[in-house]
């Protein structure tokens, strides 16, 4: 037992790196294991519970060596959030086990954050793991691009694990999913890896150009097309927005303004040329026209407002106002549903709509959190994001090491990405995305700690040389 413990402690960072590589390929690996779905589900839980055990080893090692656990900027916000969740469970008499299960899915990889914060990681290791994450994203982007041009039957046969949404085809026709569970997981994962890539290339470009060299431009376009191929409109919109945010922060808003005008003119010319030359029957078969135009149709907005995300958002907000519930209706879907029904005078039609639309509750993620934990819980959750953004800005602006600055810029953009995208997608409940978010967060806070320790050491060395004794 001691031998296993010592091995884990010596190789904590390497183990995290291995899991970082494994996650995007997990469903593809499990595809080849001939076992019942129950067994596969257990196998998918192993990384999560292994990380809990690894965190316990790190904490035990800290205690045994007499070293304190490192404080982080979000500790108070996390404690306050879980206290608010406990109040919500208590006052709403929500089912305890279901509530804990829901909390777990929202914070399942908080463990990797505290693991990384409490070990020593060099700037070289930070740089290497970021390169690995980008490489894994690029592999998925290439697979996504290839899948877009293959028949769905071939995609499922080659890449989909039995029992997943990808295998069942529970998404738009011809949408890519890489080797992940479904297009939603893939698009979110590509957003994270693309943001890291963009932050790195623009920060390290000595020429300060708006358009990177041909190699990086090819990678950038591969990421964008990989996201486009998932047919997730919100993801593509967020990706384009993140590109502009990264450019603005790395090159200044004036240069980016000119770049936007050139891009819009180019897009207009491309549209005119496409309208003249492209065979629209082919475009229709590939799903390009509905992909771009559906969101502007009256039918789309009528659907979302009457029986989808928009409908639930409206009902959650009005029910909370009507009930004056600051702590929400309880952290389970059933509790939120009952809370809405008991707070509002609903027609039989609305009751039916709620009954068959609640499966999309978690899609508008922040509004789901609002329903679960109320405005108090939501504000504490947002405080976590705000504290992370402050920390990443410090790492970008105050630290000299280029690997740390690149990480800081990437994580500040990732916090923006996650915050915005969570209004329309359950991004923090998606396993791969959640893992990478908390991994990058842990690396960021660790880098600040290591940098400050290094500065103290350099200052001590300087004072020692000046000491005449």
From TrEMBL:
Keywords: Membrane, Transmembrane, Transmembrane helix. Coiled coil: none annotated. The chain crosses the membrane at residues 7-25, 45-64, 129-150, 234-252, 259-278, 365-389, 401-423, 435-451. It comes from the Bacteria. This is O-antigen polymerase. It comes from Waterburya agarophytonicola KI4.
């Amino acid at each position: 037992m001691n031998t296993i413990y010592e091995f884990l402690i010596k190789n904590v960072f390497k183990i995290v790196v291995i899991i970082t590589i494994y996650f995007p390929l997990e469903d593809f690996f499990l595809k080849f294991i001939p076992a019942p779905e129950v067994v596969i589900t257990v196998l998918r839980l192993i990384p999560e519970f292994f990380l809990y055990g690894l965190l316990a080893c790190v904490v035990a090692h800290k205690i045994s060596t007499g070293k304190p656990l490192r404080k982080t900027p979000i500790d108070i916000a996390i404690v306050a959030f879980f206290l608010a969740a406990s109040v919500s469970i208590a006052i709403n008499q929500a089912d305890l086990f279901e509530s804990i299960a829901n909390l777990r899915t929202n914070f399942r990889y908080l463990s990797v954050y505290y693991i990384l914060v409490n070990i020593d990681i060099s700037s070289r290791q930070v740089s290497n793991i970021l390169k690995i994450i980008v490489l894994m994203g690029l592999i998925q982007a290439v697979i996504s691009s290839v899948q877009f041009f293959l028949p769905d039957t071939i995609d499922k046969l080659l890449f989909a694990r039995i029992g997943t949404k990808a295998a069942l085809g529970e998404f738009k026709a011809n949408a890519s999913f890489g080797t992940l569970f479904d297009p939603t997981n893939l698009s979110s994962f590509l957003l994270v890896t693309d943001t890291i890539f963009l932050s790195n290339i623009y920060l390290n470009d000595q020429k300060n150009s708006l358009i990177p060299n041909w190699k990086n431009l090819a990678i950038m376009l591969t990421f964008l097309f990989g996201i486009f191929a998932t047919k997730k409109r919100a993801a593509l919109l967020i990706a384009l927005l993140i590109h502009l945010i990264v450019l603005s922060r790395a090159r200044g808003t004036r240069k980016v303004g000119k770049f936007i005008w050139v891009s819009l003119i180019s897009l207009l010319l491309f549209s005119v040329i496409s309208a003249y030359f492209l065979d629209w029957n082919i475009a229709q078969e590939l799903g390009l026209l509905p992909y771009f135009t559906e969101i502007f149709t009256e039918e789309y907005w009528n659907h979302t407002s009457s029986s989808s995300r928009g409908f639930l958002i409206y009902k959650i907000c009005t029910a909370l106002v009507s009930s004056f519930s600051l702590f929400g209706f309880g952290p389970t879907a059933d509790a939120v549903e009952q809370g809405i029904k008991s707070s509002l005078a609903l027609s039989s039609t609305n009751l039916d709509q709620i009954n068959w639309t609640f499966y999309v509750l978690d899609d508008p993620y922040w509004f789901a959190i609002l329903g679960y934990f109320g405005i108090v819980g939501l504000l504490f959750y947002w405080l976590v994001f705000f504290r992370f953004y402050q920390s990443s800005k410090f790492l970008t602006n105050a630290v000299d090491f280029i690997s740390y600055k690149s990480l800081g810029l990437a994580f500040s953009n990732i916090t923006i990405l996650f915050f915005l995208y969570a209004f329309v997608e359950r991004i923090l409940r998606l396993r791969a995305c959640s893992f990478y978010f908390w991994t990058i967060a842990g690396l960021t806070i660790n880098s600040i700690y290591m940098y400050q320790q290094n500065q103290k050491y350099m200052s001590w060395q300087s004072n020692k040389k000046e000491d005449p004794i």
